[in-house]
TrEMBL record:
InterPro entries: Pyridox_Oxase_Alr4036_FMN-bd, Split_barrel_FMN-bd
Organism: Sporothrix bragantina
Pfam family membership, one: Pyridox_oxase_2
Protein's recorded name: Pyridoxamine 5'-phosphate oxidase Alr4036 family FMN-binding domain-containing protein
Composition-biased stretches (Polar residues): 164-185
UniProt domain Pyridoxamine 5'-phosphate oxidase Alr4036 family FMN-binding: residue ranges: 24-136
Region (Disordered): 161-185, 197-241
Length: 312
């Protein structure tokens, strides 16, 4: 087994291993292949907890649009929202959702286990990302959002050479940290940037009547709450629309396993399983015995990920 944990020479010594360290070994190829998709749709599976003790949990799946990686929002010239300074990056896929949808409740009620699957047709590759999901909304910078902030921040790292890298500070999940005061990076600004990255019509969908509720006969009033307006867009001057923003959520997936299956060569299919095991004593991931087994079984360890090639 080969263990490799490269450290960029350009990063100051104090930041040699910030947060989750260097990028995941699958990250660059994952981003490249998603960028080639006309629409980066992924099938997102959650657990629907039983409402009765005698019942079993059931799976739920739906298609969602991947909105990039957390803290690495793709550039969009039509996005009017202010952007955070480019000081962070991560390996955490993101999609957006309405807090009134069942998947949002399922994520909260089940503890967040999730699996997302992409089929990158041009590359002939299937990506399966398994891990835990966290929802970020209006409460992100309050005590109620601390657990999510802490879980996500562990996997955010400095971009080498960025302005924050020169401060020598350690990333923190605190909402009023010296880092945010000195760099201007904030959780709420990142969430607003995701909202602004949507089309006006898509932003307006968060003002629609609650998903899953009965739809009245044509011609009758369909809105059940003040501020709801079916089909009403939210333009660039109203990114703080109170009704839409109350329902808007950014879902961040913290991966624990990434399964890459390359079927581009029919006579030689390849598949690799990446399992997050953490870096160093302070970042060990999961049960110690289970982690040791995964490390021992791996072909190599790269930046906290155990990589093993398996049969498709």
């Amino acid at each position: 087994m080969l263990i490799r944990t490269p450290q960029p020479a350009s990063v100051p010594a104090a930041l040699a291993a910030p947060a989750a360290g260097a990028a995941a070994p699958w990250r660059d190829q994952f981003i490249q292949q998603l960028s080639q998709m006309s629409m980066p749709l992924c099938a997102v599976s959650t657990v629907h907890p039983p409402l009765q003790k005698s019942a079993l949990p059931t799976p739920r799946v739906r298609n969602c649009v991947c909105r990039g990686l957390w803290a690495s929002l793709p550039n969009n010239a039509r996005n009017p929202a202010p952007r955070n300074p480019a000081i962070y990056e991560s390996d955490l896929p993101v999609f957006t959702t309405d807090v009134r949808m069942e998947k949002a409740w399922e994520i909260s009620a089940s503890g967040g286990p999730i699996e997302a699957v992409w089929w990158a047709a041009d590359a002939g590759t299937q990506w399966r990302v398994r891990g835990r999901a966290w929802l970020l909304g209006p409460e992100a910078e309050t005590p109620a959002g601390e657990e999510a902030r802490t879980a996500i921040q562990k996997h955010m790292r400095w971009i080498p050479g960025s302005a924050a890298g020169s401060t020598g500070r350690t990333p923190t999940a605190a909402t009023t940290s010296p880092l945010e005061a000195s760099t201007g990076w904030s959780w709420s600004r990142e969430i607003t940037a995701h909202f602004g990255n949507l089309s006006p019509g898509m932003r307006g969908s968060f003002r629609n009547p609650a998903p899953g509720q009965p739809r009245p006969a044509r011609g009758k009033e369909g809105n059940s709450s003040p501020g709801e307006g079916l089909g009403d867009p939210v333009d660039n001057d109203h990114l703080d629309d109170p009704e839409a923003r109350a329902n808007f959520r950014v879902c961040v997936i913290v991966p624990e396993e990434v399964d890459q299956c390359d079927l581009s060569k029919g006579d030689d299919p390849r598949r690799w399983l990446y399992t997050y095991v953490g870096e160093g004593d302070e970042d060990k991931h999961g049960d110690e015995e289970d982690r040791a087994a995964k490390v021992k079984d791996a072909d190599e360890i790269i930046n906290g990920w155990a990589k093993k090639e398996i049969w498709p």
